[in-house]
Specification:
This protein is α+β, with helices and mostly antiparallel strands and 263 residues long. 34% of the residues lie in helices and 26% in strands.
């Protein structure tokens, strides 16, 4: 593992601890969570902003030469060799509703390619960590995806179906029809569950951007799975808004071929 990534891995754990503490405190508060709608009509809360500010401060203290791209505060130094990618609350709608599948996503990219990823789910105290060259872990224990090489035997997950772009509807419906079971709305938790072998295929369109998928790449790949955009291309800082992840690379290939057939 690159020495810089090794040092970043230690910091990533500290960052995840800090964000978890804030989110647990907020979960314990009674009543609803106030939010406003951003320009893209997605919700944001004061907690999103607080968590990201905390993460940015910790990164700048330890790695002042690194860039940072965050969901709420935008980009600083996106052209640098190392760029941290931050989604303070992936699944803000679920957070607002009190559904405990939301989490913090943290990634480190080297030359645009994700080399470290963390999925932290504070409400259930589960944390997946993946990095180039090491086995993905859940709460410190190694995990692997499960073998499933047939769509008609697969459990598929997806975010809210309203996010699927019109041009992707045909392929999306084909995967719904060909898989055995579907589960919806689990946000980033679905990708952690895939890394642990509990879900076979995760697919998303439209609502995804780099802050949503960069952390997933090292976690999925380090557990033995495959992840790409809908064209089968690697996910980087400059990828689009589609994601296909599968625990079994054979299943991933089948899903990519089926999506291509729908175009």
């Amino acid at each position: 593992m690159d020495q810089e990534v090794s040092c970043a891995l230690e910091l990533a754990g500290q960052i995840a601890d800090a964000s978890r503490q804030i989110l647990i405190q907020q979960r314990q508060l009674s009543g609803g969570r106030a939010f406003v709608s951003k320009e893209d009509n997605s919700p944001v809360t004061d907690t999103d902003v607080q968590v990201e500010a905390t993460i940015r401060r910790l990164i700048k203290q330890r790695f002042p030469a690194h860039g940072i791209l965050g969901e709420e505060a935008g980009a600083e130094g996106n052209d640098r060799q190392y760029v941290w990618v931050v989604d303070p609350i992936d699944g803000t709608r679920q957070f607002i509703a009190g559904i405990p599948v939301y989490g913090t996503l943290l990634a480190l990219c080297q030359y645009g390619r994700p080399v470290l990823g963390v999925i932290d789910i504070p409400a259930v105290a589960e944390r997946w960590v993946g990095a180039a060259g090491i086995q993905t872990t859940l709460n410190g224990q190694p995990v692997r995806t499960r073998a499933c090489g047939a769509l008609n035997q697969a459990l598929m997950s997806s975010s809210n179906t309203e996010f699927v772009l019109p041009q992707h509807q045909a392929g999306y419906r084909l995967l719904q029809q060909r898989t055995q079971w579907r589960v919806y709305g689990a946000a980033c938790y679905a990708y952690g569950a895939l890394a642990s072998g509990r879900i076979d295929l995760s697919i998303d369109s439209g609502g995804m951007r780099e802050v949503d998928y960069c952390a997933l790449v090292p976690v999925i790949e380090g557990a033995g799975g495959a992840i790409s955009d809908w064209d089968g291309k690697p996910l980087t800082l400059s990828s689009g808004s589609t994601v296909v992840a599968a625990g079994d690379p054979v299943l991933h290939h089948q899903a990519i071929e089926l999506l291509a057939s729908a175009r």
